[in-house]
Amino acid sequence: MSLDPETLAQFLDTLDRFVRERLVPHEAQVADADAIPPAVIQEIRDMGLFGLSIPEEFGGLGLTMAEEVQAAFVLGQTSPVFRSLVGTNNGIGSQGIIIDGTPEQKAKYLPKLASGEMIASFALTEPDAGSDAGSLRTSAAKDGDLYVLNGTKRYITNAPHAGLFTVFARTDPSSKNSSGVTAFLVEAGTPGLSLGVRDKKMGQKGSHTCDVILENCRVSASAIIGGPARENQGFKTAMKVLDRGRLHISAVCVGAAERLIRDALAYAMERKQFGEPIAEKQLIQAMLADSRAEAYAARCMIEETARRKDAGQNVSTEAACSKMFASEMVGRVADRAVQIHGGAGYMAEYAVERFYRDVRLFRIYEGTTQIQQILIARNMMKAAAQ
Ligand code: COS
């Protein structure tokens, strides 16, 4: 369902004020403490940000993809860890249930995910299965009506806080590729599910990842996303979820780029060298202008792809194009923002130093740039062969 334009504009305006007045002032403290203060998490809940993309009937805001990317453009303008906190509930942690879940699974989990009462994580990656996600080794052996899960999932975002995990495991031991994989909903506290120590990361301090370890963890067939009939169909669920997730991440990249450009422009207009603000220097202007044009290009392609997705078109290629272009773009913009700041850009006192490290992740997770290239080229060849 789509919001009327006035309601959407009001929501985006409120979100923009919340980002500038409540989140931006907490950025440095969150990075230093490696944690978001509980009071801020509560404000994020009260704003409804955990349920942006969850249908209204389950307590979410039910934004369309076109609306969700507008929200992500705004939310992206502050430290990515705030977005990451709500990111799994809106994206990879809930979309499997929304797209392929049974009515019972939707009714049981979506209201709690929409309110932020429960955090959801997406457990696909393993120590030996990253880009080649279809080769995952976590096993789900059938034992009567139950499945016994064994394996380790790696770098799982929000796992230390999650109440629900979408665990991808191999139900067909004779398969070696994506064809024998099933998606299970496993609740935290299920015997046999435990967590590793928190990972120490390059950036995004305040967002937490860790291993999820499954040792003889028993779940019933009703835990399969979509029910028993969707056994061995889990990889397709993962790919559909990632199509949407990649578009959302692209929009976050644009938000971050626009923030970096704002900071770099403000610094360049303030900082004087050779007797004038450095913004008057044409080499600085070139960096600002290139950044502005590239961020605008990414914004346009994301808006167009989101519109096409809402119209029911297959946007696998366009979502991959958006993820590749936007994540690489924000990397270049962050690099220029540091360069424009000069020595100051290398100092933790300025936000660009932190953003430079934080945005590095965008080129890696939810599919590396190289995986997006493979997806795009493969789809081009498929279309040409038809
Ligand atoms: N929507 C629906 N179905 C899809 C799909 C999509 N977007 N993409 C693929 N599928 C289907 C395919 O049609 C195929 O089904 P059939 O066997 O019935 O034809 C099946 O899923 C397997 O697809 P494919 O053959 O393309 O699988 P591969 O093992 O070759 O893997 C890549 C493809 C490399 C693209 C995949 O492993 C991938 O995305 N890797 C990156 C993983 C990732 O993003 N990890 C980040 C961690 S999560 S934050």
What does this structure look like?
This protein is an alpha+beta fold. It folds into three domains: 111 residues, Orthogonal Bundle (Butyryl-Coa Dehydrogenase, subunit A, domain 1); 111 residues, Butyryl-CoA Dehydrogenase, subunit A, domain 2 (Beta Barrel); 150 residues, Butyryl-CoA Dehydrogenase, subunit A, domain 3 (Up-down Bundle), CATH 1.20.140.10. The protein is 50% helix and 15% strand. It has twelve helices and nine strands. A four-stranded antiparallel beta sheet has the order 2-3-7-6, with no helix packed on it. Strands 1-4-5 form a three-stranded mixed beta sheet. Helix 8 packs antiparallel against helix 9. It is globular and about 80 Å long. The chain binds coenzyme a persulfide. Coenzyme a persulfide binds next to helix 8 and helix 12.
Q: Would you summarize the structure shown here?
A:
The protein is an alpha+beta fold. Helices cover 50% and strands 15% of the residues.
Radius of gyration from the alpha-carbon trace, in angstroms: 21 Å
CATH homologous superfamily assignment of the largest domain: Butyryl-CoA Dehydrogenase, subunit A, domain 3
Shape: globular
The distinct ligands, each listed once, are: coenzyme a persulfide
- Tell me, what is the CATH class of the largest domain? Mainly Alpha
Examine the coordinates and then state which fold CATH places here, giving the name of the CATH topology of the largest domain: Butyryl-CoA Dehydrogenase, subunit A, domain 3
Low-confidence runs: none
Number of helices: 12
The arrangement of helices and strands along the chain is HHHHHHHEEEEEEEHEEHHHH
Number of structural domains: 3
CATH architectural label of the largest domain:
Up-down Bundle
Class of secondary structure makeup: alpha+beta
Total number of strands? 9
Major β-sheet annotation: 4 strands, antiparallel
Strand percentage lies at 5-15%
Order the strands across the largest sheet as they lie in space.
2-3-7-6
> Helical amount among residues, as a percent range?
40-55%
Arithmetic mean pLDDT:
97
> End-to-end distance, in Å?
34 Å
